[in-house]
Structure formats: C-alpha cells, structure tokens
Amino acid sequence: MGHWLHRNIIEPGKLPLLLALASFVLTFVITRVITRLIRAGKGPFGNVKAGGLHIHHVVPGVVLIVIGGFGAVASERHGFGSAAFAVVFGIGAGLVLDEFALLLHLDDVYWTEEGRKSVEVVVVTAALVGLALAGFLPFGVNDLSQEELRDRGGVILSVGLNFVFALLALSKGKGRTAIFGVIVPLVALVGAIRLARPGSPWARRFYRKRPRARARSSLRAYRHDRRWAGPRRKFQDWIGGKPDSENLPIPPAS
What is the DSSP string of 187-249? Predict the structure, then answer.
C-alpha cells in the first residue's frame, strides 16, 4: 500500500488532489449529518445567526476556497503548504457545493425538491476528481502513447475530436454524459451518436420536420426517466435527506 501510494500519488504530485478530494467528501458528509440533525431537532447543533440573519455555511465555504486556492497557487507543489491549502480548499468546496442549489436559485431551497441539485453536483464533482486522480486526463490525452504525445498534430486532433463529441452530447441534452465525456472520451462518443432528448437544441433544430425521430426521442426519454428517476431519487435522499413533503411534486390525476 505504501509503495502504491508513493508511486501513484506522491511521486506524480497528486497528494494535494487526494487530500482535497478526501476533505471535500468528508466535509460534505459531516455537513449533511449536522443539517439533518438540526432539521430533526436533535443534538447540540443549531443554525448560525448574527443579528437575526441566518448565516449559511456557503459563506465560510467561499472564504476557505479563496484562502485555499490562492494559498495553493503560491505554495510549492510538493511542499507541506500545498497539501495544507489543498485541505482548506476541499473543506471550502464541500461547504459551498452543499448549498449549490441555494446559489443557483438565490433562495433557501436546501430542503426542497430543487435542493437535490446540490447532492447531484457534489456526486458529479467527486466522481470527476476521482477520475482525474486515477490518471484520466481531459479530452482523452491519457489514451495517447508517448510517440503520439510528442506529435503535436496528433494531440490537437485527439483533443479536438473529443471536444466536438462532448459538445454534441451537450447539444443533445445529455449534460452528465458531456461532462464525464470530457474525462472519458468513449462516454462523449456514445452521447454524441445517440438520439437527442426532446426539447434539446439538437432536437429543436434537426427533429422539427421529422415526426418519427421526435416520437422515438420522446419514447426513449420517457423509458429512461421511468427506469432511473426512482433509483436516482432514492440515492439522493439517502445521501442528502428527503425534501420537505410540501415541496414534493404533485402526481398528475389519473
């Protein structure tokens, strides 16, 4: 284990990234535990207020991100300072992204249906950083051999193609696929060649006069959402807690 850690993490200079990821995930987990205890009225915790104003934890999170980010830039890559500032940055990022939905909606939607976006963003962020830590590089550069890396034209072609695939997936309404496709090119390629989701820019532009394509797109999206919406919601509820019942969507009348 020690040899693996030194060869794959410390020697390539990835220790700050590992510490940032660990502190990010741990901060999010601890924050969610505390907020759920506060919500249930248990434990010694309570909301932080100053003069009647509720101070959300995104505020100290922003401060820590600024300190950790600038500190990491100013410190040496392999020094103790870089590792320490990486931890500070990870803690700040965990606090900020835990309230991502609040920043997006500019409203306190923490325990509402819209608040699920915070959990989703945290999971996606942790997964992307984990892939980068495992050695995946943006736009598939990690798939190139040393000879190809020395060939500037090959690198530019590879990056360009993978960037186009990611853009195509995004235009087809497959945001998660496009994001992960930046790191894992095969994912972007799959998203680029599959049917677009209804309402996406690609569907509005190319399916407008193709009723059969529109019907296939709507049917595939319906089947996909029906299959995965339930498990995804349960996973989000397990991590972040269920939204308030009064904020849950009302099912359509039968």
Answer: HHHHHHHSPPPTTSHHHHHHSTT-HHHHHHHHHHHHHHHHHHHHHHHHHHHHHH-PPPGGGSP
Secondary structure letter of residue 143 according to DSSP: G
16-52 residue pLDDT tens: 889 999 999 999 999 999 999 988 888 788 778 777 7
Model pTM score: 0.80
- Give CA–CA dist 36/79, Å, rounded: 37
Query: Which two three-digit tokens encode residue 34?
Result: 């505390």
pLDDT over 60 (residue 165): yes
Contact 83, 9 (CB under 8 A): no
Q: Which helix (H) or strand (E) holds 73?
A: helix 58-74
Distance from C-alpha of 122 to C-alpha of 96, rounded to nearest angstrom: 10
Q: How far apart are CA 71 and CA 62, in angstroms?
A: 14
